[in-house]
Amino acid sequence: MTFSTPPCYDRAVHTPVLVKEVLGFLKIEKKGVYLDGTVGLGGHTAAILKEEEICVIGLDRDLEALELVKQKLHSELNKRLFLYHGNFKDILKLKKKFKRQRFDGAVLDLGVSSFQLDKAARGFSFQKEGPLDMRMDPSQKIRAFDFVNTLPEKKLAQLFYDYGEERFSSHIARVICERRKQKPLQTTLELANLISELTPIWKRSKLHPATRVFQALRIAVNQELENLDQALEDILKCLKKRGRLVVISFHSLEDRIVKQSFFKFENPCVCPSDFPKCICGKKPLGHRVTSKPVIASQEEMEQNPRSRSAKLRVIERMDT
User: Fold this and answer.
1) Pairwise CA distance, residues 62 & 286, whole Å
2) DSSP 144-197
3) Alpha-carbon distance 159 to 181, whole Å?
4) Dihedral (C-alpha) 94, 32, 54, 59: value to the nearest 10 degrees?
5) Dist CA 258 CA 113 (whole Å)
6) Those residues with Cβ within 8 angstroms of residue 93's Cβ, 6 or more apart along the chain or in another chain
7) pLDDT tens, 68-94?
8) How far is the CA of 276 from the CAs of 3, 238, 273, in angstroms?
9) Domain covering 7-110+226-317, topology
């Protein structure tokens, strides 16, 4: 049986998704300063820098990716492009390093990069032989290996269900725990092949059977969902009046957090619905520019398979 590669793991990710939409929603202005909180391989940053008299402050957890961007955009480095190693969730600490404390706009591409997927040694891909690693920031200690080989069966099953939305999480966790009693699972293909042995369960599925498990492990290792809502609020507060935050997500868990957070920023009142007027005093932080997610055009989906699962949402900073 053959399985198709899901969009989020496709080699075409070298091409940034929804570039035209990102630039349009950001409303790029001359002499503006924009934040790219997930630089990756620099696709969105490069597009923003094509505009004249624009500066970009770029962040990324992956030092190797930052080095590649420095080589790719070396002519703009420390002139119009300023790169920093760090997580966008730490924006309030990191912004102390920036000369400009307020941004004209910000973009976050929450997807995993092709650079990480294509390097087998990083352990992100179930199609390449590599260690069970999956760390976006190699300086952190916890790896996928630690979750797979040390978590109790129930917690492992819960991880697969919560972060991978895997229907057969309990069965997969049980098989993994039985196998690791013989010896620890060491590599990506060991884990992927073990899950594939259960193929009859997925005989009608188009995706590789390890897709959701690998997604869950990656999210857990990198704490991708932890404090995401707070990070979105912190970045929005770092924008100027009418500055826009553009967020691109690639799976339902992230998109749900973005959607709910943007709604909360626009509707912060916590007073009971039967109160005649608001007495909590909470004011809107922004208003949603997109009520529904923006998706890629059919043309882009055909040219860049990764864009098929991309959802873009935008919120604009209000004067509070």
Assistant:
1) 30
2) HHHHHHHS-HHHHHHHHHHHH--TTHHHHHHHHHHHHTTS---BHHHHHHHHHT
3) 20
4) 20
5) 20
6) none
7) 999 999 999 999 999 999 999 999 999
8) 57, 33, 8
9) Rossmann fold (3.40.50)
pTM: 0.89
What mean pLDDT do residues 105-111 have? 95
Domain boundaries, the chain: 7-110+226-317, 126-222
Alpha carbons 312 and 39: distance in angstroms, whole number = 16
Beta strands 33-36; 55-60: pairing state: parallel
Of how many residues is the chain composed? 320
Q: Quick one: 214 exposed, middle or buried, by C-beta within 10 A (0-12, 13-18, 19+)?
A: buried
Q: What is the mean pLDDT of residues 105-126?
A: 87
Kindly report the CATH number that applies to the domain delimited by 126-222. Answer: 1.10.150.170
In single-letter form, the type of residue at position 160 comes to F
Distance separating alpha carbons of residues 127 and 184, to the nearest angstrom: 20
Contact criterion met (CB below 8 Å) for 47 and 18: no
pLDDT tens column, 12-67: 335 899 999 999 999 998 899 999 999 999 999 999 999 889 999 999 999 999 99
Interatomic CA distance for residues 37 and 104, integer angstroms: 13
pLDDT of residue 10: 35
CA-CA-CA-CA torsion sign (209, 212, 218, 221): negative
Read off the DSSP letter of residue 99: S
CA–CA separation, 194 vs 148, rounded Å?
A: 12
Model confidence band, residue 6 (pLDDT cutoffs 50, 70, 90): very low
Strand order in the sheet with 239-249: 81-85, 55-60, 33-36, 103-109, 239-249, 311-317, 286-288
Residue 1 has what pLDDT? 36
- Asked if 104 and 29 count as a contact pair (C-beta separation under 8 A), the reply is yes
Contact 305, 12 (CB under 8 A): yes
Q: What is the mean pLDDT of the chain?
A: 90
